[in-house]
Every structure is written in structure tokens, then in C-alpha cells.
# Entry
Amino acid sequence: MTERHSTLKSYTTALPAGFENLRYGVVVRPPHYRWNGEHFACDRLAHVDTLALKTLPYDARAVIEGNFVGVVADSIENARDAAKCLILSWQAHDPIAATPAQKARVNKKSHKAPVHQKNGVADIEGSHADRYERDYGWPSRMRWGETEGWVVAEYRNNHLAVWTQTTTPQALRQDLSTLTALDADQITLYTSEGTERRVASGLGRHCGDDAAVDAALMARALGHPVAVWLDAQYSIDVKALGQAQRLSLSAAFGEGDHIERYRYRQAHASGEVVAVGLLLSGRALVPGVLTNTEKPLYSPYTFQNAHLSAHTGRLSGQALNDTLLGIQQTFARESFLDEVAHARGQDPLALRLRYLGDARGRELIESVAKRADWQIDLPSRSATSDVLQGRGLAYAQLPDRQQRLESGVRSAWIADVEVNRITGNVQLTRLVVGQDSGVEVDTARLQHTLQARVLGEARPLLGSEPAFDEWGDGRLEDKQNKPLARRQPSLERQVIASNEAPSALPVTLEDTELSPGVAVIANALFDATGIRFRQPPFTASRVRQALQEHDLEASTGRNSLFLSGKSRSPRRQWFAAAAFMTVAGSAAMAWPWKGAIVPVSRPAATLYSDETIERGRLVAAAGDCAACHTVAGGATNTGGHAFETPFGTLYSTNITPDEATGIGQWSYAAFERAMRHGISRDGRHLYPAFPYTAFAKTSDADLQALYAYLMAQPAVSASAPQNDLSFPFNVRALMAPWNALYHDPKPFQPDPAQSELYNRGAYLAEGLGHCSACHSPRNAMGAEKDGKYYFAGAMVDGWEAPALNTLSRSPIGWSENSLYDYLRHGESALHGVASGPMAPVVAGLSELPEYDVRAIAHYVAQQMEAPSGNGKAQQAEAQRRVAAAAVSPNGMEEGERLFDGACAACHLDNGLPSFTRARTSLALNTNLYSERPDNVIQSILGGVHADTVPDVGNMPGFADSFSDTQVATLATYLRARFAPDAPPWQQLEQRVAAIRQPHHNNTHSSL
# Structure
């Protein structure tokens, strides 16, 4: 992939510095927009009301062009909040308005013959056993990006400079030229991969190109450089653009088991779709209906009566990417031949050699097969039962740069993969590549490229298809990463010309034939799982979903349109067993009396892979398991923690894999039943103090990983104390009607109208994080209230969990960034530190990837209707409250003496040295503004322990130093001085006496 104008340069992922009047932009996409494979359709922008932008305390401007809507402000947080203020009216797209030719094609597709399971491969209804037809696809975007980062565009003096990440610089340059009408030499691309021309995978575009066009469109309209934040929220474009290329193949066998008729057809001569900004702004128009003129294609195999063709029409300004077209054609052809070979019980390698007349190609395939020790049935080489292994083959031959076939490149690949059936992650474990021309192939670099861009990295959230139950690697996450609000431009505009690459840059792939890369993985995946993936990329979420669907299809006899199965070997019996257990478990739940599940021996240490156990560790951290199942001074997860309820005292149980006192004899079916339905292995009902009402929302993959993690921990013998519940609440069978009334065991379902970030946050907060278990009030039967009461605050175990919705009584309104700081770092500048019951929560969240914590903050902020960042008004109000609290109220001398003696050294800046100092004034403390004094009293008696927050000391408790009267006097003083606009608390001394009871002496505090 060469370029005439070598103006591609490199920069780091930090925001480049040195811009004048840099602005930050966000885009607002239409409610509905999509590329249907032939034309683009979207809702039409009927009306825009921007008057609200003029009332904002900062400068914000809207950029409107066609159906493109962008908002620009002086910070990314302000831009996001300003976008919420726009009033937009959209006119729904009318599919009836399509052209007659388009409707004819839609009708033709809708009458396509149904697909059925036959011989392990999907066949068209009415075909005989020797005829095969398949459709394959190629996505318009392989993923949303490589990693989160800034995309900046600067338009000045008829020159456009763009800082972005891209794997297709030629296509991006063409889009930017179409957008601005500039020549290619008037456009400079700066990329985090300065040698992109050398290392570009050719595997397709990602949304870094869409973000670049968005930024360029806004920068050109306003005359200022504009920065756009590229992250997983751009995955909405991935879904909307859908499929860029459709490839159809068919083959019929005649006498002698020879292919007598072979057909190959692709929908477009170009396999790419232009940037969304071009489509929305109307600058990329479809010139009528795509022409039906056919272009001859090439196949290295010699079939009788072969016919290959493609449309030549494409969008105006759309670049023709021969490299990508070659990869698409090879993917479809090599996947198709692999399917046919498996359906007919033939060796895929032997079938290719049978129809390959080229002697050089045959010799190359045989050489690679010998090096790889090719076998039809790859024996299992793993002792872990949650890992499947497979092997695939693919071959390609393409003309050289002068379109000469004889001197073209021949390339044969054999790949081995491992598939984790629980997480869905696919690892390319071995790659054997043979190429008969060009430089020696760097297989290590090829393997890394394919792993990152076809399968997704080992940290799935960074660059792959996001899903609500995907996990990154918390241990590898930089714990010191600052949130977006704190990221400042820090890099000077230092550039490296792409033709002067340092020696440390990756080895070139420019002369490597990449065409077999996607096909060889697809074929290896089929060999491992029995599932045929007919469109890349093969991300963890897609693979996991397909495995789950395949289990259901195996039990019902149904078959999916986009994948097919082959006969299962013994190593795949695990899937059928899992499906059976799910069905059996559902039937058991319908029976009124719950029987015991047969005990099992503790699973072997090698049953689950390290990857599955690590995922389970993150699930346990998100669920805060250890906090509730560990008593102070006790071993982790051995139980004994007391929970005070209106019905009596409950104690958590031992969840280590001890077979006598823990869950060592629990099968996964028993564990899942407890988590989803609140039924113990022995058939007893569990109480919802164990929040199975929330845990039921956990995905199957996460439950399996959590089970694997718990079973891999040390077994500790420890029996939990007996519960002390009053009658009739000590009768566990009464939980059956309670569950029927108040419990929904269905797993979490993402909201398609919300962003990926919101759904990830909802999954964690509503499910594993069980936030509402503490922050929502309960009815007389102990069930959480929903609706307007969701997140409205509650009393839990003697502590107030404050409201996390619009009823929040925080003196300074929370923002999404403040919530993120609090949850991620244990401290918010305008709200204080996390301690007490929130301390172990923050400690658990510190183990999670940054994306997960940001997702939770985003979800909670939506419930609070909170802005993205802390605006100037919030900062001013905080300063006003702090200043007002500098003066002690009159008539409270006793309270002032207590405060000066016990509190002032840390809570007032009096100019004297102090070993510890509270960085946030009490004037901003939510507890002092609450209607209830409980948290303030608890903090005075038991202290505040913020061990999770660096450089913040602990506050000692005064239970042994102050009488009830003194604690009440101090609390009254704190309320009057630091929350002067709140009414005084009543009957404080009686409340202090009640809280001082021994079972309340553990130290807690809340948000």
C-alpha cells in the first residue's frame, strides 16, 4: 500500500501541545443511521434549536452540516454537557422512499431460500448433497480503534493537518480530500504509528478515520483546531455501518467427485465504506444505483465452468484498495473450500492440491504442511478443559505490481489457535507461513498483527468489539492513569517523517502477502469449535455468543444464518453438558420444592486456565465478595461477617473451596443456582442479604469465571455463626413466595438505545456491584423499591447509604468526573475521601480496568442527571461554602471547644504543621447535609479510615473519649458551622446512645 505523497508522520497518544485556540468537540449522531450494503440511510435533521447554548457560562458552538451535528467548547466536559442542551428534531427515515431498483433488490433478498443444517454445513433448501452455496461478509469497520486517544484536526491557510490513529491512511486521506476539496499534498497526517505505510495491516478501517473526519469537519467550519476523544463509544459507528462487502460462492460436484461448476461474486469493486461524517454531511453521494457491470476476478484454482465477477460501482470519492480486496476474496474463497472439504469428509489440504495446477503453489503448500506437521484431526494438547484447540490452512496467489500472475506472490499459511470457551478469547498460538517471493516473512510480526486486528488484544476493551460483559486486564492497567478531565496537553509537536523511521520501529510487512491471514484463523476457529464464522473480526464477545448459541442449537436442532456447526468430538462434549445443565436448572426452578444438588469433589487445579481464573478475579473484585465474606482479622472469604437487618442478624458464609465448611463440594450448577435463584446446594433458600437479586444479572461467562476463581483459592475450614432471626423470618421456605413476588432471575440485557459505556456501567452497577442493595430503600418485606425510589438512599447495617439519583443532598452537585475520581482514586476534590463501607468497594474497584470504573461513574451520573465535569459555577459555590465555614457560629462555645481539641488540627488550615490533614473541607461533606445524623455520629465514634487513599491519614475514633452528650454537642456544632442552611438535628443524644451499641462499632462511612 504505497502513497505518492509521503506526508505521514508520528506522534504519541498524548494530546499534542502548541495549538492556538484549541477547542474540544463531540458529535451527535442521528437516532437511526445505517449502511445496508448498497446505500446509506439515516434520519433527517428537521430542526435545530441552539438558543440554550447562549445561556451556558462558557462558549459553546454547534456545527451543523446536512445531518451532521457537532458541538465545540473549551473542554471536552463542557462540549458533552452543551450537546445535551441542544434541541434536535429528527424526521425518521422512510424506507418506502428507496428507488425501485433498491426495493427490487430488497425483495429479492427477502425471498432467499432458508438455510438448514445438512452434513455439518449450511445448505440452501432444495439443493442436492453435491451442491453448496455460501455467503460471506466483510465489516465496514473492523473495530472502534486501537486504543483510547485524542484525534485533532487543524485547518489553516488551505492546509489540513490531522493527528489520529489509522490503519488505512490512503483511504483516510481520500476522505479528507473529499471533505475539504484539498489535494492530497495539502493534507498532512500525523499518526501514533509513524511507519503506518510500512506496518498497515490492510485488514480494514477502524473508527479512528471517522473521528478524524468529524474533527476535520468541525475545525474547517470554525477556523479553530478541534480535538475529539476516540473511545469505545465510537462503536455505534461500527454497528451502524455494518457490512461493506458481501461475497457469494457456490460449487456443484459432478462425476468423479470433481467440482464442475464454480461461482464467485462480490457485491462491490471496493470493499470499504467512507467515513460517517462524509455520509451524514452529504458530501459522499451514491451516484444513482450501483452499476451491474462485471469485473473479472482471479482464483488460483482451476475449476471447470468457473465464473467470477464483481460490481464496479462505488461511492464517489471512494478509494480502490486492492490489498483489502485481495484479503476479502481470499477469506471467502478459502473459508468456502474449507467448508466444502469438511462437509465431504476430505482433508482441506488435499482438496486444495487437487485443484491447484500451479507447480510452485503445490510445492509451497506441501513444504508448509511438512513444517507444521499437518494433520486432519489435531490431537488435544491441553490439560485444561476450558480451552479448545484447532488448526487451519489457507492459500493465496496474487499478481505482482505489474499484474503478472506467473511472477506474483504465492503464500501458504497454517495457524494454530486456542479458544477459551468461557471468556471467548482466541489466541493465535502458532503461525507457519511460506512465501515464494519477496523478503523473508516475519511470522512473529504477522502473528502480533493478526492477534490485535482480527482477534482483538488479550485486553479486549482496547481495540476490539466492546460488550457489556467484556473485561480488560486489571493487573496490567496503569493504576496512576488520570481521568480524562485531568489529562492536559503535554507533548510538543515533535514529528518523525515516515521515510526516516528509527531502527527500533517494527519490521516491515510491506512485502508480505497478507491475504490468507483472516481465512486461516477462520478455518482454525472452525476446527476448534465446530462453528463457522463468516465475517471478521473474531472478537471475544462474538466467539462467546456464538458458542452459547451453538449449545442451544445443538439441543433444539436449529441453525444460525451466520454460522454453522460440524459433528462434535469428545473434547466438545463440554458444550452439550453445559447446555443440558442450563435446561435442567431452569426446569428445577419451576418446581415449588427445591431439592439438593449432588455434591462433587473439588475441581482439579488444572480444570480452568489462568485466563479464566484471572477473569474470575476481576468479577470477584467487582462483586466485592471479600468485603462481605471476610470478618475483621479472619481469613479471606471464610465468612462470619454480621449483617444487621430489621428481621435480625445474618452472617455471611464460607465461600472458600473447603469441602466441609465451604463450597468445595458445589458443582457449577449448584453455584449458578445460588447466584441466580438464591437456592443453596442443599436446597435451602438463601436470604437476599446475599444479593442474588443483583447477581442474577451476571452473564454466564462471568459466573463460570467466578466459579473457577473461587475454586482455585486456598481452602480454609471455618464455620459461620448461626443466624439470629425472629419468627417467621427464620423459616427459609417463606423465601419462595418472596422470590416469586420480588425476584427476577433473568441475566442483564443491554439497552440498545444506550451507549456501550452506559450498558457496561449498568451491568456492573446493577449486577455484580449490587449498588442498589445499599443505595435503594426497601419495602416492609425487605425488597428493594424501584421506579422513583431507585438509588434514593437507604439505611444499611446502621449506616446511611446516600441517594445516588436527583435526590442527592450533596452540597456541591456531583459530576461524572467527580464520581470517577471518587470510585477510582478514593477521593474527590469537592466531596472528600472514601472510607468505611465504601473503602473496600474502592479497593475492589482499584483492581478493575479504568474503562470499567469510568463506565460505573457514567451510569451513576446518568441517574443523577449530573454533568460531565465540574463547571465554574460548582467551583465558585464550593469556595463560597468553604469561606462561610471559616467563622464559628455564636452560642456554641462547648461544641467549639470540642472541635478545636479533637478536629481542628486536621480539618482547619490554621497555618500550623500537621502530620495529617483533610484535603476537603467539612463544608463540602455530604453527611453533614443529610436529614439523618447517623454517619456523622458513626464517624465520630469509630473514626474514619481511608487506607485506600494515598497520603491521607486516618481519623481516630472517640468512642472511648467522649460521652454521649459530648458526641451530640460536637455533631450539633458541626451541623451548624459547616451546613448552616440545613435544619438542626433533633434528639441527638438518644441517637448517639443507640449507635454506640457494640454491633455498630465497626468503622464505616459512605459516599
